[in-house]
Design goal:
Length: 117
């Protein structure tokens, strides 16, 4: 017997279409620089509760130009891709190999992006 969850049970039906579109848009912007997309938080732990939980996703890419980061943030912004879960602003963090991760609003760090409505 496999310990892997069945795909239909691994991702709650309420967020399946949203995640599929998030993956499609991320691939379209990042292209071959996309390394992976990983669900984290309650979704990854199997504790997602529709109407109470948010959807936490980490996108891993090779270094992207600032313009591509802005394009990705715009493509995934709630106003363009409404999340069916509890709405919280997306936080964008960038990291360069050998350097620590940095985050913040775009006004203080141009390569980072905070979006949402």
């Amino acid at each position: 017997m496999s310990t892997e969850p069945e795909p239909s049970r691994a991702v709650p039906s309420e967020v399946r279409a949203y995640l599929a579109e998030l993956v499609r848009r991320t691939r379209a912007v990042c292209g071959p620089r996309l390394t992976g997309i990983v669900a984290v938080g309650s979704l990854a732990l199997g504790d997602y509760r529709h109407g109470r939980s948010d959807v936490d996703v980490t996108v891993v890419v090779e270094e992207l130009p600032a313009a591509a980061l802005r394009e990705l943030a715009d493509a995934l912004a709630h106003r363009r891709l409404p999340c069916p879960a509890v709405a919280r602003p997306a936080t964008w963090r960038t990291s360069t190999p050998g350097r620590s991760c940095r985050s913040g609003p775009p006004s203080t760090r141009p390569a980072d992006r905070r979006s949402g409505t």
